[in-house]
Amino acid sequence: MFYNSQNFKQTRSRRIITAALCISLASQVNFQLFSHGFIISLAPLIMSVFLYFNTDLHPIKLMLSISIASPFFRGLLLAISNENNQNAILTFILADIAFYFVYSILYYFLYWQSESTTNSFFLLTIIICDYFSNIVETGILEGFTNYSYRLFQILFLIALIRSLLGSITSFLYHYFNLMLSKDSHERRYYHFVWIAASVKNELYFMQKNIDAMEKIMKKAYLLNKNLQGKIENGNKHSTTALQIALDIHDIKKDSQNIVQILTNYFNDSEGTKPMKFSEILRIVTRYSQEKIHERHSNILISTHNHVEMLVPKYFYLVSVLSSLIFNSIDAVKNIPEANITILCQEESKEIIINIIDNGSGVDDEIKELIFHPGFTTKYNKKTGDTYRGLGLSRVQAIIKEQFGGDIEIQSTFKQETNFKVILNKQLLSE
Of 265, 289, 315, at which residue does a domain stop? Predict the structure, then answer.
């Protein structure tokens, strides 16, 4: 949806009216001090908070709205109460208007027109605005007589306390929002890294499939050559073999285009900085914890890391660790007190990662098969469809081919499972 300038003007007008009404109502929470009609209210405190978070609103327009609404409410209440005569009520209203008028002029020239917008300068500005506005308001009520040094001290103290409370409220709320925003950005970043890791691994195996297609295509082409004229119907079969080679070539070409396009977006060799090992663990564990929370499971993941190094090909490591942790999550999903422990240790030439869970364990017969391509225990019992995932055979392939390592499994059926990942330290850091 597109918004024109009229929509923005209406939005700003509504914000100004809302602020004027809220601040005017807040001004009714007050107590009287010094002279008859001089009140100490919450309005300037709330006003400073509103000014801090609405820097796009013209302060004079805002203050003019408040200087109409606030005296109106105050004058109406004073008239209904019958405690003051008309001249006194008019004086109170004029003093109220003068307070907001002086405040707006000072704020406009000192802060809104200034290039400096630091928090300390904002605090200094509203102290000055509050202080001099109080002096003018008191002067109108007292006929600009009866000023004393003691009065100026008290007015400054009032301005200081009120401005400090307003500024502290604004700064704390702003800081809290920044923390929430940072946490939200961090979650999105972690999610992006996890998705990018998944895509990178799919690209890796797609490239391997392309290489396999190339070999099959060559075999089909050689078969075409060998069949020509050598056996009965040889030409017919050789034509079929040639067509197979051409079809595979077309599939290979399409696959290469997909790989090339995605590689341009997820290329870890250009413009991507290495990631700390501890950061990789943080991404993997946090994403896993979010998935555990979505499943409403009670699973505790604890990490004990003694490795600190930079990993250039971190996408592959993210996928390996994520896959193993999700395997553990599935294994402990029916355990009352489920625990997954990640131990990372550094040896002279190797990085050892143990992922241990107290889940269902792995039967001895299955241990021999879990790293075979195509083997899975995760399937839909109703449809027979297997669940998609990286798969332990692919995990093993990445560990061996990318990091010169290996993966082992130690498991006691219905007690505990430990996947031990061994990585070559030098290849991990390259």
Answer: 265
The pair of three-digit structure tokens given for residue 57, joined into one six-digit string: 């609103």
Residue 260 burial (CB count, 10 A): 10
Both structure tokens of 207: 């490239």
CA angle 215, 217, 221 (to 5 degrees): 120
296 Rama class: left (phi>0) / alpha (psi -120 to 50) / beta: left
The pLDDT of residue 341 is above 70: yes
* Residue 143 shares a structural domain with residue 236: no
- Helices marked H in 267-422: 277-294, 314-332, 364-367, 392-403
Compute the chain's Rg from CA coordinates.
Answer: 36
What local confidence, expressed as pLDDT, does residue 52 receive?
85
Structural domain contains residue 23: yes
Residues 345 and 399 in one domain: yes
- Of 132 and 173, more confident: 132
Q: How many domains does the chain have?
A: 3
Q: Write down the residue that tokens 């979010």 correspond to.
A: 290
* Domain finish residue from 242, 265, 288: 265
Alpha helices in 82-148 (DSSP H): 86-107, 119-142
Q: Where is mean pLDDT largest: 72-76, 188-192, 426-430?
A: 426-430
DSSP string, 133-169: HHHHHHHHHHTT----HHHHHHHHHHHHHHHHHHHHH
| Cross-strand partners of 352 | 345, 422
Could you tell me the two tokens for 106? 């000072």
Please compute the mean of the pLDDT values over residues 108-119 and round it to a whole number: 84
pLDDT digits (tens, 9 = 90+) for 245-257: 777 777 777 666 6
Classify residue 360 by its DSSP letter. S
Q: Is the pLDDT reported for residue 354 higher than 90? A: yes
Q: Is residue 180 part of a domain?
A: no
Q: Which helix (H) or strand (E) holds 310?
A: strand 310-311
Beta bridge partners, 341, equal 302, 356
412 in the same domain as 279: yes
- Going by pLDDT thresholds of 50, 70 and 90, the confidence category of residue 344 is very high
Residue found by looking up tokens 């225990």 in the block: 377
Model pTM above 0.85: no
Give the Cα separation of 407 and 327 in Å (integer): 14
Quick check: 287 and 194 in contact, CB under 8 A? yes
- Residue range of the domain that includes 225: 186-265
Q: Which residues pair with 342 in a beta bridge?
A: 303, 355
Residue 422 and residue 279 share a domain = yes
Query: CB under 8 Å to 11, separation ≥6 — which residues?
Result: none
